[in-house]
Amino acid sequence: MIKRFDNKHINNNITFTFDVKDVLSGFILSNKFDKIFILTDENTFKYCFPIVKSCFIGKKNILKIKSGEENKSIITLHYIWDFLLENRASRASLLINLGGGVITDLGGFAASTFKRGIDFINIPTSLLAQIDASIGGKTGINYGCLKNEIGIINFPQKIIIDPIFIKTLERCEFISGYAEMIKHALLFDENYLDELFIFFPDKNTKIDYNYLSVMISKSIDIKKYFVKKDPFDKNIRKALNFGHTFGHAFESLSIKKNIKLKHGDAVAQGMICELFLSNKKRNFSLKKFLYISEKIINIFEKKNIEEADINKLIKLMLYDKKNISNKINCTLLENIAIPVINNIITDEEIRETLFFYEQLSK
Ligand SMILES: NC(=O)c1ccc[n+]([C@@H]2O[C@H](COP(=O)([O-])OP(=O)(O)OC[C@H]3O[C@@H](n4cnc5c(N)ncnc54)[C@H](O)[C@@H]3O)[C@@H](O)[C@H]2O)c1
Fold first, then answer.
1. I want to staple 179 with a disulfide (CB 3.0 to 4.6 A). Which of 51, 77, 268, 296 is the partner?
2. Is 302 left (phi over 0), alpha (psi -120 to 50) or beta?
């Protein structure tokens, strides 16, 4: 087993490359795993596995699960554990998570808990997973309708990021990943925010993948910066939750109602709400808030909030992992690149925010 809690594995295990095969083959050759398991979903099996297939000489064990947030569940986790057991995975085995954030979260958790932890690596294939989900060691599953309620922070032995995978991503998934890039820019770099708003390709414009690669690498650096400062999410790393107090509640509600809502779309909605609160409670400039909200609304589909859902959303926010003593705790911004963690928000403020959002999206 590779040692995983040293600084190297927390921060220096990310390889950004344009030759995933070369990096993966090198990694496999330099470690002596008895068996290799590859976790995919139907899309990453179809589009991503062929890209790395030749790295595996001899027998590999491929696990294929159904794609979708609803499958980041205890049932799928059972399936993975059973598969590992039936195929005699040992503590000398490796699990490769080849996919989006659902695969890296779920596979990371399965590997971390199987036989008290086997080695795993992430090869993120969605934009969202490349710039966010695969980095930082957060693994887990949804429980009931609650997002990421069960999980562990455990760092993969390696993360290999190659923008080649993004080319087969559906546009709606590309947009979902874009939300986390906007979040990174809001937390860290105003110029990057302008760059993202200018770059965003409309439906009829082809994506410039070379330029996108540069931005992927920028976002990776921003995520790494926060993880390095606070690997176990006790302090400043909580800034990365900007947009997620509301965002996770929107997402949980959609799971409950069996309505599809992409993670990034929920976070985009959440960022508008949390920018509203930033203006109210942290003096974030009104002009900037309105400008950014308009840009976000233009990129992400408008979502309506039904009045009957407001109490449900507040209830869901009470389960947020950042809360302290049953008080809803949120990351806000004083300005772009000046996040403030641990802001307590009241039910009344949440109602006011949701009311504002509902007006805005009309
Ligand atoms: N652990 C973390 O720090 C962290 C951070 C952010 C988000 N997340 C989690 O990540 C998840 C969202 O990630 P996601 O948006 O990648 O979801 P996802 O894994 O469901 O992937 C989105 C869709 O894209 C498909 N796909 C992935 N790569 C593809 C490719 N190269 N070509 C074609 N199709 C491809 C998938 O099959 C899926 O249908 C959520 O569960 C969220 O909670 C985790």
1. 268
2. beta
Q: Is the CB of 169 under 6 A from ligand 1?
A: yes
- Count Cα neighbours of 327 within 13 Å in the Cβ-side half-sphere: 10
- Where does the chain hold its CATH 3.40.50.1970 domain(s)? 7-168
- Judge if the beta carbon of residue 134 lies within 6 A of ligand 1: no
Establish whether residue 341 lines the binding site of ligand 1, counting it when its CB lies within 6 angstroms of any ligand atom.
no
Considering the domain 171-360, what is its CATH architecture?
Up-down Bundle (1.20)
Q: Which CATH number fits domain 7-168: 3.40.50.1970, 3.40.50.720, 3.40.1190.20, 1.10.357.10?
A: 3.40.50.1970
Give pLDDT tens digits for 46-86.
Answer: 999 999 999 998 777 999 999 999 999 999 999 999 999 99
Q: How far apart are CA 349 and CA 132, in angstroms?
A: 29
The answer to whether 303 and 269 are in contact (CB under 8 A) is yes
Of all protein residues, whose CA lies closest to atom 16 belonging to ligand 1? 100
Which residue ranges does the chain devote to CATH 1.20.1090.10?
Answer: 171-360
Q: Residue 134 C-alpha to ligand 1 middle, in angstroms?
A: 9
Q: Which of 41, 63, 128 to mutate for ligand 1's pocket (most ligand atoms within 8 Å of CB)?
A: 128
| Rounded Cα distance, 334 and 279, in Å | 8
**pLDDT at position 163, please?**
97
How many whole angstroms from 66 Cα to the centroid of ligand 1?
12
- DSSP of 19-53: -HHHHHHHHHHTS--S-EEEEEEHHHHHHTHHHHG
Which atom of ligand 1 lies nearest, measured to the CA of 138? Answer: 1
Find the 71 Cα to ligand 1 centroid distance in Å.
Answer: 12
The CA 123 to ligand 1 mean position distance, Å, reads 12
Residue 264 CA: nearest ligand 1 atom is 15
